[in-house]
Write a structure and sequence with these properties.
The complex is a heterodimer of chains A (311) and B (259). With 311 residues, chain A is of the alpha/beta class. Chain A is built from ten helices and 14 strands. In chain A, helix 3 (94-104) crosses helix 4 (109-122). The two termini of chain A are 39 Å apart. Chain B contains eleven helices and two strands; from the N terminus they run H-H-H-E-E-H-H-H-H-H-H-H-H. In chain B, a hairpin with a 2-residue loop joins strand 1 (55-56) and strand 2 (59-60). In chain B, helix 4 packs across helix 10 and helix 7 (142-166) packs parallel to helix 11 (229-253). Classes of the chains: A alpha/beta (311), B mainly alpha (259).
Chain lengths: 311, 259
């Protein structure tokens, strides 16, 4: 079954900005789906329409087969939203915020208390249950929004940049938890600027740019499209110019660092052998950027150039 | 009862409970100021000045203005509660908690209206108690008193919601209470009978809906009114229906709430 089905979805804001230009998108039930795109690409607008926070201009939206135009309440009941910006009452306590939200979804209090304890413990917020929300740290506020979105046990969880501004330790524990939620059967749509996050967590991905879907396939298929990779090599001794290796593009970053670009047909062994023959010892090595990030940037650049040419 | 109906009932109770808790949590802003204002009115207009004014329509001045002062506090507090709570939720973005939930719009409107009604009745009851320290109040038509106060409170709670939906900043939520609501209340027969006014001013006064609400309420207490009580109730019921439908329309269309 399709968790989400968007058909010819368009949105034009009052100021004339066309945020979505007739997109089609399907997300299968149980999927962990990444919706990626640069700032202003239309991701948040698409999520806004899906969660009925933004009115669509045209198109059809279905959530687990419930049409948003005709079965709004049923569609809404299936969705849990963790928005980009903090949107709870800062003057209320953690428990009050959660009890209220569960109430809006019609969850009886006796049921809520058990879930509240379970999720607050899972996300290390139980000790803060009686604290006023404005006193929470940034990471705690993000986790609180995750708990809030899960209290009615939605079939679809939408995470709009859930780890923005969260330190790496908390981020990793959040990933772990979100993986568990997905494994339990909840469909997840994730938007994030941390592409490493999307690459690690998501099985399928759509890239949106200038209001259009420019890629929509499995993460593995997408990553296979990456023809070249760049590596940063740290050298033991200083060099005065970039070494020349036939067939390889090498740039010198500083006297102890070079960047090597390799294609799928080439291999790093050749690079090390050639460098070694020139008396250059490599101490350590890392990817210049993660694979999805590299692919993403290329696709977005290509899309932007095509857009410029068209205009 | 179906699952959806039960869920909606829980959602509605949650809004009302949250609104009530808010009124109690910030009692220094919601309950104490109107009580102090009413006490000052009773001391200054009732005792100090009222003694020199003498009788009005056969009642002491204090007895005459008491229903008006109670109604004035109900109007300002019902309006103030919804306008500040709803706009606060919009400004702080936590209105989104409700907008993404499956709760139908009519229950959101009714929930906020109930919040305004609760505060209106709470403050109105408190001002009535204060009035009893200063004068004797005999209720001649209890049903008229109760229905007039409830309908008026609902009208202004809903009006507060309309204001909050359109407001873009805090100035815009204080504009209507300051420049429209307060003058209309003061010219709405709280402190005087409009028979004291020249004929032209009397005709103008009849365009003021608050005149009808205050007089219907006063009729319930004292049995006297400057206006036709049936007409007053028609205006209150009509106002409630029109404003309720307006709120529902605004929420359904997402005007001022959704992009």
């Amino acid at each position: 079954m399709k968790a989400v089905s968007l058909r010819n979805l368009s949105k034009t804001y009052k100021n004339g900005v066309q945020a979505l230009k007739g997109i089609d998108l399907d997300v299968e039930e149980g999927d962990f789906f990444a919706l990626l795109g640069p700032n202003g690409a239309g991701k948040t607008t698409a999520i806004g329409i899906l969660t009925s926070l933004v009115n669509k201009t045209a198109g059809k939206v279905e959530v687990f087969g419930h049409n948003l135009d005709t079965e709004l309440a049923a569609a809404k009941a299936c969705i849990g939203l963790v928005p980009q910006e903090v949107n709870f009452n800062m003057f209320e306590t953690v428990s009050t915020i959660l009890l209220n939200q569960a109430g809006f979804y019609g969850i009886p209090r006796r049921v809520v208390h058990d879930r509240l304890e379970k999720y607050l413990n899972k996300l290390q917020l139980w000790e803060k249950r009686n604290s006023v929300a404005r006193g929470l740290s940034g990471g705690m506020k993000r986790r609180l929004m995750i708990v809030r979105a899960l209290l009615h046990e939605p079939r679809l969880l939408i995470l709009d940049e859930p780890t923005a501004g969260v330190d790496i330790e908390v981020r990793r524990s959040m990933w772990e938890f979100i993986r568990e939620v997905n494994a339990a059967g909840t469909t997840i749509i994730l938007t994030t600027h941390y592409l490493e996050e999307a690459e690690n967590l998501c099985r399928n991905v759509a890239i949106i740019n200038q209001g259009k879907i420019i890629e929509n396939e499995s993460m593995n298929t997408l990553l296979r499209k990456l023809n070249t990779e760049s590596f940063v090599l740290n050298l033991r001794n200083a060099i005065s110019s970039a070494p020349v290796l036939p067939g390889y593009k090498i740039q010198m970053t500083d006297s102890h660092t070079i960047e090597v670009e390799t294609s799928k047909e080439q291999n790093l062994n050749e690079v090390f052998t050639a460098l070694s023959a020139q008396g250059i010892a490599v101490v350590s090595m890392r990817n210049k950027s993660n694979r999805l990030e590299e692919l993403f940037l290329r696709m977005v650049e290509r899309g932007n150039e095509a857009g410029k040419k068209a205009s | 009862m179906s699952t959806r109906t039960t869920a909606n009932l829980i959602g509605f109770q949650t809004i009302v409970r949250r609104e009530f808790k808010r009124i109690i949590r910030i009692w220094g802003q919601t309950i104490v100021p109107p009580a102090i204002t009413a006490t000052l009115y009773f001391i200054i207009f009732g005792r100090l000045i009222g003694g020199r004014i003498g009788e009005m329509n056969g009642y002491t001045y204090l007895q005459y203005i008491a229903p008006g002062l109670i109604m004035m506090s109900v109007i300002t507090n019902s309006y103030g509660n919804v306008v500040s709570s709803f706009f606060g939720a919009k400004f702080g973005k936590h209105i989104e908690e409700l907008l993404v939930s499956p709760l139908p719009n009519y229950l959101i409107v009714t929930g906020y209206m109930m919040g305004g009604l609760l505060r209106g009745l709470l403050v109105g009851g408190l001002v009535t108690l204060i009035a009893l320290f200063f004068t004797h109040l005999h209720v001649q038509h209890p049903l008229v008193v109760i229905s007039a106060v409830i309908l008026t409170s609902m009208v202004f709670a809903l009006a507060g919601m309309v204001n909050a939906v359109f407001a873009k900043n805090f100035d815009q939520i204080s504009f209507i209470p300051t420049f429209i609501l307060t003058p209309l209340t003061y010219f709405g027969g709280v402190f005087y009978t409009i028979s004291l006014l020249p004929e032209f001013a009397q005709k103008i006064s009849h365009l003021n809906p608050i005149l009808y609400m205050v007089n219907a309420f006063r009729y319930g207490f004292l049995g006297i009114s400057d206006v036709n009580v049936m007409l007053a109730f028609s205006i209150m019921i009509g106002g409630t229906l029109v404003l309720y439908c307006t709120c529902l329309y605004l929420l359904t269309k997402g005007i001022g709430l959704r992009e």
